[in-house]
From TrEMBL:
One of its GO terms (molecular function) is dTDP-glucose 4,6-dehydratase activity. InterPro entries: dTDP_Gluc_deHydtase (IPR005888), NAD(P)-bd_dom (IPR016040), NAD(P)-bd_dom_sf (IPR036291). It is an enzyme of class 4 (lyase). PANTHER family: DTDP-D-GLUCOSE 4,6-DEHYDRATASE-RELATED. Its cofactor is NAD(+). Belongs to the NAD(P)-dependent epimerase/dehydratase family. dTDP-glucose dehydratase subfamily. It comes from the Bacteria. This is dTDP-glucose 4,6-dehydratase. The keyword Translocase does not apply. It catalyses: dTDP-alpha-D-glucose = dTDP-4-dehydro-6-deoxy-alpha-D-glucose + H2O. It comes from Sporolactobacillus kofuensis. The keyword Lyase applies. Keywords: Lyase, NAD.
Length: 336
């Protein structure tokens, strides 16, 4: 397969490229990425010289460049990870979320249509479903009810994908996964922020009462789900991905502190996120029964691996945390 992976320099995209190069060494992968603040080619340094891996610096809104790349490499499938992905940033700067996540997706689909691409896979999110109360699960049939500008841009993109399947018959799939964590996770997101701040004995900002629930999945389990959908997903179908690893933020933070032998006194409650979804939880029955997907890592195993990765890759995150990200952090959380 000749696979165009957009957003491959980000967290999940770079893990996916590693996963695919390991499991399909004769496939060709073209990583197409704009290298925004979240894109980092150091994530892929070890495979940079592999002849089956290519990097193209570009914007998914640029149809001419996409046309050229698809012809040049005779691309037959696209997996779209490229997005603005951080909910907090979408609250302060929503415009770029609409441009990249909605217009970028439509541009990719139009190119996929014109170039007769065999498969287009959209990596979406459970956030398109909005929030749950204390019971229940998101199914593929749950109505879309996004609450943040980020979630609304992803939901809009999903609708555009649907339209390209229904109208033009493009072979599309959408995956909607719960919260990922693991290596190369940018430290603006909860788990890497907590691990790296705790390692530096810095305060750990907890939004509101900390009782919001997220359903955590180790990134490699998500990559395996995308691989299955890419190869065996039924045209036009949506697949939810999640491993039933629900946890309240405050409990997760205390668990991480415990594993790092750091005191709970580092925890600092701060103002809540506006429109903060209370609970996410995925029902993965469809992908489990149709495609045989199961998570291979428990939350305990995944967290241990992740903590160990951040402890042994300090240089990777020190560089990020000392760069322009620091300005964002200070503006968002103050200087503590
Ligand atoms: P990320 O922010 O770490 O990476 C996004 C990547 O996209 C970066 O490399 C960035 O440079 C690139 N990018 C941004 N705008 C671009 C553009 N216009 N053109 C080309 N490249 C561009 O994101 P992530 O956490 O790895 O998420 C990847 C995808 O998975 C996103 O679509 C996100 O919505 C989805 N998702 C994420 C999670 C999660 O927990 N992180 C869960 C479910 C779904
Ligand atoms: O559910 C999938 C989504 O998960 C993805 O679509 C998004 O791209 C990804 O960023 C993630 O969104 P969340 O908003 O759930 O993740 P985040 O790590 O930002 O926050 C997780 C929870 O922790 C959420 O309830 C907010 C809270 N939080 C977050 C930060 C950054 C805090 O309490 N303090 C913090 O400093």
């Amino acid at each position: 397969m000749k696979l165009l992976v957009t957003g491959g320099a980000g967290f999940i995209g770079s893990n996916f490229i590693h996963y695919m190069m390991k499991n399909y060494p004769s496939d060709t992968i073209i990583n197409f990425d704009l290298l925004t603040y979240a894109g980092n080619l150091e994530n892929l340094e070890d495979i940079r010289k592999n002849p089956n891996y290519h990097f193209v610096h570009g914007n998914i809104c640029n149809d001419e460049l996409l046309d050229y790349v698809i012809d040049q490499f005779a691309v037959d499938a696209i997996v779209n990870f490229a997005a603005e992905s951080h909910v907090d940033r979408s609250i302060t700067e929503p415009g770029v979320f609409i441009k990249t996540n909605v217009l970028g997706t439509q541009t990719l689909l139009e190119v996929a249509k014109n170039k007769h691409i065999h498969k287009y896979l959209q990596v979406s999110t459970d956030e398109v479903y909005g929030t749950l109360g204390s019971t229940g699960y998101f199914k593929e049939t749950t109505p879309l009810a996004p609450n943040s500008p980020y979630a609304s841009s992803k939901a809009s993109a999903d609708l555009v994908v649907r339209a390209y399947y229904e109208t033009y018959g493009i072979n599309t799939n959408i995956t909607r996964c719960s919260n990922n964590y693991g290596p190369y996770h940018f430290p603006e997101k909860l788990i890497p922020l907590i691990i790296t701040n705790a390692l530096e004995n810095k305060k750990l900002p907890v939004y509101g009462d900390g009782k919001n629930v997220r359903d955590w999945l180790y990134v490699e389990d998500h990559c395996r789900a995308i691989d299955l959908v890419l190869h065996r997903g039924k045209p036009g179908e949506v697949y939810n991905v999640g491993g039933h690893h629900e946890m309240r933020n405050i409990d997760l933070i205390e668990l991480i502190l415990d594993k790092l032998h750091k005191p709970n006194s580092l925890i600092k409650h701060v103002s809540d996120r506006p429109g903060h979804d209370r609970r996410y939880a995925i029902d993965p029955t469809k992908i489990t029964t149709e495609l045989g997907w199961h998570p291979q890592f428990t939350l305990e195993q995944g967290l241990n691996k992740t903590i160990q990765w951040y402890q042994t890759h300090m240089e990777w995150w020190h560089k990020i945390k000392s760069g322009s990200y620091m300005d964002y952090y200070k503006k968002h959380y103050g200087s503590s």
